[in-house]
Write a structure and sequence with these properties.
heterodimer, A: 261 residues, mainly alpha, B: 324 residues, Rossmann fold, four-stranded antiparallel beta sheet, 10 helices, globular
């Protein structure tokens, strides 16, 4: 309880201070609401538009989640395939860098052409923007397997399959989780960008499309709500991956289970 | 041969695995297997860069003997051990275990027929007949597995069923007095305990040849002395053949029946010494005059410059090329 207080209190106080300064600055300098709305106004507008905003959050969370899951699945598999032989690694690894350097905004319209309207092109955008760190970290993790343990498995007649599942993949886990943590945040960013382009018309709008519509109607206060919600979504996904990572790796490190012996 | 190394390694696995697995299971099943004899004939190892690690070495190790390899650091002790294990192919000569396994050089023409038969691969790709265990300089445990599951690993790879390998692993842990640490993770162990787990992992298949590469070198003096005693007790109970690398002459004297002192690179046998001490070893032995006498013999052999002093000792390691 006291630990939670000691860890949780400072950031909460800092956030409250920042909001206070924001409120004071907008009030003292009399900044017009379409440039920088007062935090109080943002809060009120958010409550007013809560159903719309939450529906948007749900839609964005879905496509970001699907994109992230694809990234994890494809990224780890690709990492395994790339490190399976030197030849494959030399031939294909440079191309996986493409995934990182490709300008998402530029190919997003193409994704709409390929996947139609709705969440599918958005999930594809989330996938493209988040898969590279998973591939790169999986490759790095698989490359740094303990040489002596590799020899040990060879000594006891273990083949490539048991080497992969009993040694190389598990020992790459810390590195893979690092990749997944980075991917979680990127998937949300990719989704929002995808939603800008994937021109939704009428009906329920995801966060990215809401931004476009709010900007058009000068609802800067609601744009702020969306920004806050999108950041929170990224944060929650990051925290979820962090939690799974902790649950998986907690036995690995010294002091992980203090007082148990 | 035009086949790339890794692919060849993979093919080698496929070849070995069928023949190998059944052997492994036999080893796990038979309780008191004793030791297996080892013979080295003209074993030479030259690394890719031209560094000569092992000069021609001839050594005959009878089954069940405890042999210590001593030598200057950076010499060929570890390389020799790795050649014995088949982890390193030999450049010339042959290593043969009396169970039929051979590590022969692909170049030596007389053995061409042997190296193609699946039961005797030319270079290390398994196929040691399941009789062999290797203990590294540091524990090398898997941090994601409990102590028990770490010790189970060799049996798991051999396809032994769960109940049988649990029982065998628990027994091996009991032998190194770690029965109460089974559920812990490696991160929760001290250095000495981790090394004992590593030892238990080696013992779990009941190997007939135990290769140990300075296993206790990184531990404090007291822990090391305790582990030496434990190891000796374990050996006298089951009598596997042990080849133990160390650079401590007192550890060598305490443990072994026979000490082989190697020269600098390329390593050759400088002294092959029978340690003249009673079979029963205890801590009290370390204080006795006979113990110190034996250990001094080893120390002198280790400290003595090689007989071919002018051309072997003074030349840079990389240039020794024409020494033989």
């Amino acid at each position: 309880m006291r630990v939670a207080l000691r860890l949780g209190l400072p950031p909460v106080v800092a956030a409250m201070l920042l909001i206070l300064i924001w409120q004071v600055v907008t009030w003292v300098f009399d900044i017009p609401a379409y440039l920088l709305p007062k935090p109080g106004a943002v809060a009120l507008a958010s409550i007013d538009h809560a159903p719309e905003l939450l529906r948007g959050l749900g839609m964005t969370a879905w496509s970001a989640g699907v994109g992230f899951a694809l990234s994890a699945l494809v990224g780890i598999t690709l990492g395994v395939v790339l490190t399976s032989t030197d030849l494959i690694e030399r031939a294909f690894y440079p191309f996986s860098v493409f995934l990182q350097t490709v300008p998402l905004i530029a190919i997003a319209p193409l994704l709409v052409v390929w996947f139609g309207f709705g969440w599918r092109p958005v999930a594809a955008a989330a996938f493209i923007s988040s898969v590279f760190p998973v591939v790169a970290n999986t490759v790095a993790g698989l490359r740094s397997t303990d040489r002596q343990l590799l020899e040990l498995i060879r000594l006891y007649g273990g083949g490539p399959v048991s080497t992969l599942f009993k040694l190389r993949l598990p020992s790459a886990l810390p590195s893979i989780f690092t990749g997944l943590r980075i991917a979680a945040g990127l998937a949300v960013v990719g989704s929002i960008v995808g939603e800008f382009v994937a021109s939704y018309t009428g009906g329920a709008l995801p966060l990215g499309a809401l931004v476009t519509s709010y900007v058009r109607s000068f609802r800067t206060d609601l744009v702020f709500s969306v920004v806050v919600l999108a950041s929170l979504l990224g944060l929650v996904m990051f925290a979820l991956v962090g939690m799974v990572s902790w649950l998986t790796l907690r036995h690995w490190y010294v002091g992980a289970q203090r007082g148990s012996y | 041969m035009a086949i790339p190394g890794r692919l060849r390694g993979f093919l080698q696995y496929c070849l070995d695995m069928s023949a190998h697995k059944s052997n492994q299971q036999d080893a796990a099943a038979s309780p008191a297997a004793g030791g297996v004899g080892v013979r080295l004939q003209g074993v030479t190892k030259v690394f890719a860069g031209g560094v000569e690690a092992l000069g021609p070495i001839d050594l005959d190790i009878p089954a069940g003997q405890f042999v210590v390899l001593l030598g200057p650091s950076g010499g060929g002790k570890t390389t020799l051990l790795r050649c014995l294990a088949g982890l390193e192919p030999v450049t010339a000569g042959a290593v043969s275990l009396h169970n039929g396994y051979e590590n022969v050089s692909a170049a030596s023409s007389g053995h061409a027929a042997v190296s193609t038969s699946p039961s005797a691969p030319a270079s290390g790709g398994g196929g040691r007949g399941g009789d062999l265990a290797f203990v590294f300089q540091s524990p090398h445990l898997m941090p994601w597995r409990t102590v028990l599951r770490n010790v189970e690993l060799p049996l798991e790879l051999a396809g032994v069923d769960r109940a049988a390998r649990r029982a065998a692993a628990a027994e091996a842990l009991e032998q190194v007095q770690l029965a109460d640490a089974m559920r812990r993770y490696p991160a929760q162990l001290s250095g000495g305990m981790a090394m004992r787990v590593s030892l238990a992992r080696a013992l779990v298949t009941k190997p007939r040849l135990l290769l140990m590469d300075e296993p206790f070198g990184a531990l404090d003096e007291l822990t090391r002395m305790q582990l030496d005693l434990q190891l000796h007790t374990l050996w006298s109970r089951r009598r596997p053949t042990v080849v133990f690398v160390t650079h401590s002459t007192t550890e060598a004297t305490f443990l072994a029946q026979r000490a082989v002192v190697l020269s600098r690179r390329p390593a050759r046998v400088v002294l092959d010494h029978r340690i003249d001490l009673p079979a029963e070893r205890s801590e009290a032995l370390r204080g006795e005059a006979a113990f110190h006498e034996q250990s001094r013999v080893l120390f002198h052999a280790l400290a003595k410059p090689p007989e071919t002093a002018p051309d072997a000792a003074s030349v840079e390691p990389g240039v020794i090329g024409e020494a033989s």
